[in-house]
Structure formats: structure tokens, C-alpha cells
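Quick illustration for those who missed Monday's session on complexes.
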Amino acid sequence: MKVYILLLFLVTHFTFANDVVWSKTGHRVIGEVAQQHLTKKAAKAIADILDGQTLAEVSTFGDEIKADSTYREFSAWHYVNYPADKKYGDEPPSKDGDLMIGIEKCIEIVKDESRSKADRAFYLKMLAHLIGDLHQPMHVGRLVDKGGNDIQLQWFNRGSNLHRVWDSNMIDDYDMSYTELASNLPMLSKAEKSSIVKGDIYDWVEESQDLANEVYDSVEMGDKLYYRYSYDWWDTVEIQLEKGGLRLAKVLNGLF
Ligand code: ADE
Ligand code: ZN
Ligand code: ZN
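Prediction with zinc ion bound:
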């Protein structure tokens, strides 16, 4: 019995410990911002496909299916790693797929009206999730350290790593609901918003990779992080959430 409990602990601990994801809150903020920037036409089409669910509600779907082995083929879609001195696409893509391949596939299926509603709903939920992941800089990090997962750190005296600090530690410790966070994001002018949505996913992935490089420079292995780190980086977290939301809306408005 004791051995069984120990095994159960080890399995669940290591399964969940490695499975860090842009926190549910982060994804929902991005979904909420996007929802507020949809055209009427897109909002209606999306509500039809999702049976009335909102983008915030479905934004965490991509992570919720990760534990189910039926969906294993999608697990490499959450991130992309490529050398910092190259552009995405300079090298052959990963055979398991990656974030950009995932986003392209979702777009292709969502806009195809001959596909079943169930298929379009599945890939729309994935798309809302993956555009979020594209804006978590550590999802466009380095292969050697698995997007910062191998850069061990202490977060308020508890074990963490650079990937997890950016996925969830900062956002979860800020301790606001997704609606509170979405309504407290910096107010942007029309001109600022239109500058953010310029370009396409291939421009945005380069921007995220540049940010990832700054984030890598922000710590050394083994650092003990406290409030100072959040003070220094919180504005960036908010900007990423806002960009993710505005850009998700742009992509969706273009599909419907
Ligand atoms: N999660 C698991 N492996 C990863 C990687 N190589 N880059 C980013 N996130 C990851
Ligand atoms: Zn992650
Ligand atoms: Zn994800």
C-alpha cells in the first residue's frame, strides 16, 4: 500500500510538475481581450461554432487535453524552438509539429466551411490557446533548456524554473481574476492597437523570440527570485497578454 501511494505521488508529481503551462488566467485574459475586439460578424460566427462559449472559456482547452493520450499528436504544438540567429522556417520544421504548424493547421480548418462544426470548434479552441502560447516568450525559447524548463530557480523560496515563472508564477501570484486583469490592462490608443496588430504570426514569433532572449538574460541558474523580479517584468507580462488578445482578434476577424 505504501509503495502504491509513493508511486502514485511520484507519477502525479512528475507528470504535473513538468507540465507547466501559461496559467489558465493568462490564457483567459487573452481570450477576453480578443472577445472584446471581434467584429460583429466574427463574434456571431464564433458563438455559433462554440455553442455560446466565449474565447476566455475555451482558451485553456489546449492544455486540458494534454493529459489525454488520444491527443498526443498535438503536444508539440504548444511551443517552437529554433536558433536565435535564424528566422523561423530557415531550418526544416520539427517532424512532430510545432507552434507555427499548429496555428496554420487550426486556421486552415476553422476557415473551411465544408468541415464539420465539431472539427471547426476543436481547432478554434486550439487556435485561441496557441495564439496565447505564442505570446509567452518561453514558448519560443531554446531547445537546449526546453524553453527554460531546465533553468532551475527559486520563486519565493520554492523550487521553480524560468519557464514556470513566466507561465504561471508571476501571473498567479498577482492574484487577480482574468476579468480583473483584462480590465486593468494599460489603456491603448487606436494607433497603438493598430501598430500591435501589424504583421502576421511569422513577425510575432520573431518578436517573442527576441523577448525570450531578454528573459534568458534576466536570470542566472539557481537565482532566488522575489518581488523584485515581478516589479521588473510585470509590465512586459501585461503587454504580452494585451498583444496576444489583440492579435487573436485580428486573426479571427480575418477568418469570418
Ligand atoms: N515545453 C516542453 N518542451 C519545451 C520546449 N522545448 N520549449 C518550450 N516549451 C517546452
Ligand atoms: Zn508553458
Ligand atoms: Zn499551451
